[in-house]
Here is the input.
Amino acid sequence: MGSFFGAFFLLLVTGVPIALALGVGGMGYLYFSGNGGVILALPQRMMAGVDQFILLTIPLFLLAGMLMNVGGITDRIVGFARAMVGHRKGGMSSVTVLSAGFFAGISGSATAEASALGSILIPAMRRQGIPPAYAAALIGVSAVVGPIIPPSITMIVYGVLSGASIGQLFLAGVAPGILIVLGLLIYATWRARRDGFPVTEKMDWAERRAATLRTLPALVLPLIIVVGIKAGIFTPTEAAAVAVIYALVIGFIYRDLTVSRVWEAMIATTLASSAILFITAMASIVAFVFTLEQVPATIASAVLSISDNPLVILIMLNIVLLILGMFLEPISILILTMPILMQFLKIIGMDPVQFGVMVVLNVVIGMATPPVGILLFIVCATSGQPLTAVAKEAMPLIGICLFVLFLVAAIPMISLALPHAMLP
Here is the structure.
């Protein structure tokens, strides 16, 4: 299998898209290993990889998020966060973290969150006197909660591949997401006091109430989805459809949506969904190659030859996932590694839902980790700051995320308390 991984990373460094690198690398391995005839069956494997009813949730949740975004919900969320914490020391940095937490309940994507909030909040923080490199780092690291707090596209993919309950995964991500937001809020407040960041004028109660009422429809959407799934009112796929209808109704009631904006959201959703599902189809080729060559069992045996201690295996697994998260997109990582991860899940004996939250945390934290985390590149492009300066500011923020990851891995009830409490 060394030839496959070599070809895959060679294609990546030469600028070939991840999806094509996966597919071409897999087909190339089959051809040169004497299994060229199997390539004829790969189109069927690709179709089987995306022919799953639950995957309909991906374009539907993406569309709901896009509709709210083009309908001005992002601006409302920022306004609500400013009303709540904008008057604190260095208020805009606290507004940034809180906005990321609220926006996570809509987008389900770290890259979408970093892009949408960065364009609004980095200039706002700069105007308040907050160093632009720190502002960019705060946006980039805060965006990791996007795939943690429900609804989460990455959690859906993990649930499809592992067989774990998507409703349970959504619930399990709530507490870790809140812990990350709280940790970043504490750091932002401390940093503001240490460096003497300015404050903004405190809004009166009438302005706060108005900001809350404007944003309330967006804030209750994650609650509707999670409670609806757990109460058995609708399935995850139906919940995604409900989210789209809800976004349309709210958008037209508030007169934020127009036909042209709906069309814009549909085009953006089509492009994003096509990319995700194309990666899924191409990664099915790799999954087929791994199964054919018994790669999961081979890797599990190799790791066990180093140590059979579940704690050591867990540490090695976390390190590898963090490194992968620095280079690859989360969905690609899950599809590529899930057969191997399921082997390790049996060895360490962790609950599949807790394991899923840990895995997702690893890969999204990797996205914000220097030197090649994709979230850092997004905020660097938005802010115009050099990567070295942003990476330096991001390190303590990443440390907070890693601490939450440690808690999730070590204490099962952090992620499992809410799913267990809401069992039917």
